[in-house]
Batch of 3 targets.
Target 1
Amino acid sequence: MSSPLKIGLVAGESSGDQLGAGLIRSLKLHYPEAQFEGIGGDKMLSEGFRSLYPMDRLSVMGFIEPLKRLPELLGIRRHLYQHFTNNRFDLVVGIDSPDFNLGLEKKLRQQGLLTAHYVSPSVWAWRQGRVKKIASAVDLMLTLLPFEADFYKQHDVPVVFVGHPLAEEIPLVTDSIQARKTLNLPEDGRILTLMPGSRASEVDSLGRLFLDVAQSCRRQLPGLHLVVPAASHDRLEQLNGLLNEYPELSVTLLEGQSHLAMAAADVVLLSSGTSTLEAMLLNKPMVVSYRLGKWTYALVSRMLKVPWVSLPNLLASEALVPELLQDNATVDNLSNAVLAYFLDEKKVLALQHRFAELHQTLRHGGNRAAGQALVDLLEDRRR
C-alpha cells in the first residue's frame, strides 16, 4: 500500500490563507489521505493543515520591516526547505508572497521536488526579466487572470489560468437595494462612493481631491450622497479630520465595509488597485485615479510595460473606464468623468454589459480548477 501524498503549502497573508483552504478541499477530493503542511492561517488549519509557523510571521509590509526581520525570514525559509526536502514532499505550492516563496521554490526544484506557484506576481506589468527566475522556480504557474497566462505562454512557462476567486464569490447581479438597506442609506437617492486608498499617504494625496470632486458634482446633483469606507481605524480618523472641512457634504463614513459601500453606489471614484476589480465585478461604473510623488512617478512610468493601470482596462484590453493619473487628476477632469455616468444612462448600461462579460471570463473554476491542474501535474510525475 502506497504512503499518503505529502503536499506543502506556504501562504503569507489572509488572501493566501483563503486560497490555500480552497485548494486543500479541492485536492482532498482526489487524495483524501494526503497530508498538508507548511505555513498557513486559520482557514487552512480548519481543513486539517499543519502549520510549522504562525502565518503572521511572513506578513511584512513596506521596505524597512522586511529588512529588520530578514534574519528571521531567512531562518524560516531554511527550515521549510529542510523539512520539505528531508521528508521528500510530493509537491510544494507557494501561494502568492513571491518574495518569500519563489526563492524557496527554486531551491526545492533544484533538489528534484515538484513545485507550483498560485497567484502570479505582476511580472507582466514591470520588471519583466523576473520571468526567468520564475521559469527556473516552478513546474507550474496558476494565474487568476487570463492575460497573465498569455504572458507566461509567451515565455514558455507552464501555466494554467484558473480564474479569480472574487468572480466566483460575487454574484453576477448585485443587489444594490439590499446594500443600501444594510447601510441605512436612501434607497432611491444618488450615491457616489469615494475610496481614496488604504494607506495614510494615499488618503493624504487623494482624500481632499476626491472630496473637492464630490463638492463639484453636488452643484449639478444637489441630492448627491457620499459613502466613504475607511480601510482601518487610523484611516477613519484621518478621513474624519478631512470631512470636518466639508460640512455641506452629505456623507456616510464607514470603518471597513468597502464591499457594501461599492455595492450601494451608483458610481465609484477610487484609487488604482485591486478594488477596481471588485468594483467591476459588482457592476459599478468607476473613475480611477492616482497620484505619486513627481520623481517616483517618473521612475514607475518608465518601468511600466502596460498601457493601463486598472484591472478592468487590462482585462478588456481597452480603455473601458477613465484613468486620470498624476497631472490629469484634477477636480475638473474627475468631476466631468463622474458626472458623465450620472447623466448618461446609455453609457452606464453599455459599460455594465462589458463588465458582465468580463465577470464571466473570470469564472474559470477557481480552486477546483487549481486543484485539477495540480492533480494533473502530480500524475504526470508519477507516469
Note: The radius of gyration is 22 Å.
Target 2
Amino acid sequence: MQMCNQKIMMPSVGFDMPITDLVLELEKLRYKILEGTTHPLVFMQMKSIFHMLESIGSSRIEGNNTTIMDYVESTKINDGSFYRNEQITEILNIERATSFIESVIDDTPITLNFIRELHSLTVDSLSASREGCYTKGDFRECNVRIGGSSHTPPDYLQVIPLMQELVDFVNEETRPKFDLMKICIAHHRFVWIHPFENGNGRVVRLFTYALLLKNVFKSKQRIINPTAVFCSDRNEYYNYLSLADTYTNEGLIKWCEYVLHGLKNEIEKIDRLVDYVYLRDNILLPSMSDSLSNKYITDIEYNILRAAITNERQEIQAADVKALFPGKSSPEISRLIRSLVDKKMLVPVSERARKYVISFGSNYLLRSVLKSLDKNGFLPLND
C-alpha cells in the first residue's frame, strides 16, 4: 500500500529569481485591457478554432495521432454530417468539456463534483479498454502506475482526501500575485495524485483551463490556450512534471517557470488576433487567396468574401455585393449571398439580419485559415 504524507506546497521565491519577472510580466497581461477591433462574431469563430486546437493538442499528448486536417475533414463536412471513430470522439469530448467550462465557470465553484463532471464528459462514449474508463465520473478505487514515470501515485484510499486538499488549496484566498503559481502547483498536484483510473492528463488540462478562467483571465474577450504550452513538446512536459515530483523548492520552481513562460508566450501571441488589421492582413486575406488558388472558392465568391473582410464594418450586405457586380439583378445578388450562407462561408450578424460576416464553418475555408495560422506560428502541433 502506497501511503503518502507529502503535503501540497508553494515554492519559496526570491525577488532576484527569473520566475519573479515572469509573474510580473503575466500580471501586466492579466490586467491589460484589450481594446479589440475584431468583429465579435469573427473573434468568437477564432476562439472556437483555438478550442478545437486545444482539444486536439490535449488528446495528442495522450497518444492520439489524429492530425488537425484529419479532424477538420472528419467533423467539418459542409453537409453537417461527419465521420466518427474513437480518436475523433476523444477530441469531440474535450471540445464539449471546454464549452461546458466556459458556460458554467462564472457561477460554479471548483469542487470535487465539478472535477468528476469534467472526467465524465472527457471519457464519455469511449472504450474503457482504450481511452475511456470503467468508472466514468468516479475517482479510482484501485492503485495505479504511471507509464514512463518513476512516481507511484498515492494509494486509492487517499485519493478523496488528497483531492479535497487540492480543491481547498485552489479555493483558498491568497494575494493575486500568487494566483498563477498556484495554478501551476495545482496542475502538478493533480497529476501527482492521479485521481482517475484513466483520463487524468486530459482532465488536468481542462481543470487548468477552468482555473485560469475563474481566477486569472476572466474576460471572455480573450483566447486562452494552456494546452499549447504542453503539447508543443510532450517529452519536455513530462520531464518538468518529473522535476516537480521531487517536491524540492528547485524542482517546483523549474516546473512553474516552464508553465508560466509558455503561457506568457501563448497569450502575447494570441492577443494579436483582437487587432483586426493584423488578423485581416496576416490570416484572413491570405486564407482567401489560398482558397482561390486551390479552387475551394470561385472568383465571384472570392470577391464577395474579400469585400466582407476589407469592409470597414467587417460586414457585407446586398448593396455591397451589388456594387461589386452592378450588372447583376437583385434576385441574382440574393442568390449569391444565400449560396455563401448555405456553404457556411458567410453568417448573418443576427437572426433574420441582412448583414453578414465571414464564416469559417466551411471546411474549405477552415483549411486555408489553419494554413495561415500555422504560417504565423499559431499552431503548436507538428502535423
Note: DSSP finds 16 helices and three strands in the chain.
Target 3
Amino acid sequence: MTKVLAEVTGSISFSQRGEKGQKGALMREHDGFESGSYKYLSGSGEEAYVDVVCVKGKWYQCIQTYNDATSSPSLTDGHWTEMSNYKSIATHLLLAENATINMLGTNQINLFDPTTDGKMFGSFRVVSDANDYALWLGAPNGADAPFSVKKDGSLYASNGIFAGELKGVVGSFHKLTAVSSDGKKSAGSIYFDSSGYITFDADIYSQGTNPERTRGWRFYASTIWSRGAFGHNNSTLAVINGASMRIYPDGYGFAYTVVRLESTTYDNKTVYKIPLYSPNDKSAGCPIDVVVFNSSIANAIHYYEFVPGGTGKRWMAINANDINNGIYFCDVGGWHQLNGGQTINLVYINPELLNPSQKGKTYFGRGIFWSGEHDLDWSNR
C-alpha cells in the first residue's frame, strides 16, 4: 500500500523570476577623520562605499557625499548622522576600547604599542607598488622594522630560526653554522671573510656512489693548492693496445670507455696520438695520469705521440707487456723505445721556455722530457 505524504488541491502558478538587483555599498570604517584631504561617500547611486567614522566612541554615518575631498570635515555640516545602535564588527573583534590593534579605513590593519605612547608597532596593508611594504612588525615603518615583507614577496628578518625545510634559488649569507640533530653541538661552519674567501671550519666529505652513473662522486675544480699533505688511492688511467685506448676516468676497477686513437704519418711512420686531457666527450675535463701500454701482439711495433696539454703536466708510462719491446714515443730528443717491463716518468714543458727556444717548431715530442726509466722483468717469476 502506498502512503500519501502530501496532497495538493486547487491550482499552482509560478511567478517570473525578477532581475538581479544592484550590489549595495560597503561600509568603510574610520577611526576618526582621515588626516589630509579625503572624499567621504554616502553610498548613494553607484557609489561603492558608505563611510562611517568613530569619534569619541560614537559612530557617525555619511548621509551626503562630499562634492570634493575635504581636509576639515565637521559632524554638524549636514553630511553626518549619529548611528546610535551601530556596532562595528571591527570594534567588537579588534577595536575594543583598550585593544592595541586598529583598522583605519579599508585595506590595512595597524598595530600600536601602548608602551611607546601609542607609536605604530606594525602594519598589514594592501599596497600597489611592488617595492612597498605590505607587512612589517617592530617599528613605525617598514624600512626600519626588524621584520618586513614587500608586495613582491621580498622578506627581511634581522634574526630567525627555520625549524623545517628551507628552499631557495639565489641568496647570500655571511656565515652558516652546522649543528647536531639536537641543535646543541656545533659541527662546523662556512663563512666569507673580507677578502672574498670561503672558509670551511670542518672536515669536508664527498663520498659515496652516483647511482645513475655507477661511479663515485667527482670534485671538479680549475685550480687546487694543497698546503698540507696530499694523497690518493687511485689514478686516472688509460690502457693502450695498438690503436685502441681504454679510458678509466675514475680509476681502474670502475667503468671505462673505448676510443680509437687518431693517427697521422710522421717520419715515414704511422703515429698514434695519445690525448692526456679530455680524451673523449664522456671524459671531458679528465686528465690522464697513468698510461699503460699492453699490446696483445708480442712482436708488434707501434709509434705514439703524447698530447699532454698544459705546462708542467706529469704522467707515468708503463709497458705492461714484458715480452714486447715494440713501443716507441717521441720526446724532445727524438724517438724513445719503451721496452717491455719498463716504467718512465714524463713531464711537458712549453717549447718556448727551452733554450734555445723551440717555439714555432713542429716536430713531434717537442717539450716532452722523461726521467727515472727502469726495466723490471717478471716473465720468469
Note: The two ends are 111 Å apart (CA to CA).
